TrEMBL record:
Family: Belongs to the leucine-binding protein family.
Top-level taxon of the source organism: Bacteria
Designated name of the protein: ABC transporter substrate-binding protein
Alphabetical list of CDD domains matching this protein: PBP1_ABC_ligand_binding-like
Entry keywords, A to Z: Amino-acid transport, Signal, Transport
Keyword Isomerase: no
First and last residue of the signal peptide: 1-25
Residue ranges annotated for the Leucine-binding protein domain, each copy included: 27-356
GO biological process: amino acid transport
UniProt xrefs under InterPro entries: BCAA_transport (IPR051010), Leu-bd (IPR028081), Leu_Ile_Val-bd (IPR000709), Peripla_BP_I (IPR028082)
SUPFAM superfamilies in the record: Periplasmic binding protein-like I
Species this protein is from: Borborobacter arsenicus
Length: 385
């Protein structure tokens, strides 16, 4: 009797395990490694909200390869050590075949060794440090522009801006330092003098010392690189000090609508490089797609200020979907290989990847589009219009 009972129990357990296996096969997991707390929390949350809209659309239209998409979302706390730990957790515990992350360049760089260790690809949606695709990590595919691509985009604007001399104010991380390096090279090659280089820690709230030095310089333009929370403080403090020089921000993480709401008049006449311009969707590479995303964002009840950041999460998930479909299976190596073969219409343009980095170990880089906008009397217009 005991033997028979044990046999029945074993059979029952086997059936349960098989059923569990079938259930888990009903979803395709995509790991999300984003800062949901800490200094970059606002931006990371926007990315996640954009990703959720993409996943909802995909699932409403049959999913991927007949399976529903499951986003496995983890908070890297705006901390590089946590970003690496999150990457490992997503791969080892959650068994995701692909990740999207990790917003900041320092966060992404910290997570990258884990991708190499476990041979799992990651779609980089925001980070701009040139080091990310130059290190020789074949599991990295980036849809955001590195700082050298953004500098090249900015170069085309120089004739209309008539910049003679610039000072830099940048966050003290890989993003900020990389921007200074690549923009300095571009400016110097095009006859623009580079003056002061001022750095601010990512948690700093008082930038008056750096801004006072910049006020005393003879530069006509200030290039600022930081996330929207700190940028709001910079604009307010610059206005309080009576700085009237032109302020131009880089990186596409300024959320101009949020600046208007939170910095008020201090945001007027500032200029910002963005990579999705929701104020003029008809001028986007794929207008119908842009309008549909804006409508979905508003229907979800999200703040319009998040559109210029959230689009990255939306585009990232759609690009990952295309890679999985091209691969024909939710397997890391197949997805990595498929990234090289896709052509995906997104809110920023049609994504294809070119090789960047050491031969034989190249990362994938999409050559993104950018738009310079200006805040005038609390309204957003195209720069130069």
């Amino acid at each position: 009797m005991n033997r028979r009972t044990n046999l029945i129990t074993t059979l029952a357990l086997s059936m349960l395990m098989a059923t569990a296996g079938i259930a888990s096969a009903d979803t395709i997991k995509i790991g999300i490694n984003q800062p949901l707390t800490g200094p970059f929390a606002a931006s990371g949350t926007y990315i996640v909200d954009g990703a959720k809209i993409a996943a909802e659309e995909i699932n409403a239209n049959g999913g991927i390869l007949g399976n529903q998409v499951e986003l496995v979302i983890e908070d890297n706390k705006s901390n590089p050590t946590e970003a690496a730990a999150v990457a490992e957790k997503l791969i080892e515990r959650d068994k995701v075949p692909v990740i999207m992350g990790a917003w900041g360049s320092s966060l992404t760089l910290a997570a990258m060794p884990k991708l190499m260790q476990y041979e799992v690809p990651m779609l980089v949606e925001t980070s701009s440090s040139s080091k990310i695709t130059k290190q020789g990590n074949p599991y990295i595919f980036r849809i955001s522009p590195p700082s050298w691509v953004e500098a090249a985009l900015f170069k085309t604007l120089l004739p209309s801006l008539d910049i003679k001399k610039v000072d830099f104010l940048a966050i003290n991380n890989d993003w900020g330092r990389g921007t200074i390096t690549d923009f300095t090279t571009m400016f110097q090659e095009n006859g623009v003098e580079v003056g002061l280089t001022e750095i601010m820690d990512q948690a700093a709230q008082d930038m008056s010392a750096q801004l006072s030095k910049i006020k005393s310089s003879d530069a006509d333009t200030i290039i600022v690189t930081t996330a929207v929370e700190q940028l709001t403080l910079v604009l307010k403090q610059a206005a309080a000090l009576g700085i009237t020089k032109r302020i131009i921000t880089t990186g596409g993480s300024q959320n101009p609508d949020q600046l208007i709401d939170q910095a008020g008049a201090a945001a007027n006449n500032t200029m910002h490089m963005v990579f999705f311009a929701p104020w003029m969707p008809e001028k986007s590479p794929h207008p119908d797609q842009a309008k549909a995303f804006i409508d979905a964002w508003e229907k979800a009840g999200h703040d319009k200020a998040g559109l210029t950041e959230s689009y990255r999460g939306y585009d990232g998930i759609r690009v990952i979907k295309a890679a999985i479909e091209k691969a024909g299976a939710a397997e890391p190596q197949a997805i990595r290989d498929a990234f090289w073969q896709i052509e995906v219409p997104t809110l920023n343009g049609t994504v294809t990847f070119v090789k960047d980095g050491p031969e034989g170990r190249e990362s994938g880089q999409y050559m993104a589009n950018g738009t310079l906008i200006k805040i005038v009397d609390g309204k957003i217009v195209l720069a130069g219009s």
